[in-house]
Amino acid sequence: MSDWTEYLKFMAAVFSVTNPFGVVPVFITLTAGYSRQERKSTARRTSLAFACVMIVILLAGDPLLGFFGITVSSFKAAGGIIILLMAISMVHAKVSRVKQTTEEAEDAADKASIAIVPLCTPLLAGPGAMSTVIVYSHQGTSATHYLVLGGGILVVSVSIWLCLVSAPYIAKLLGRTGMNVVMRIMGLVLAAIGVEFIAQGFMEMIGTGL
Question: Which structural domain range is residue 134 located in?
Answer without folding.
Answer: 4-208
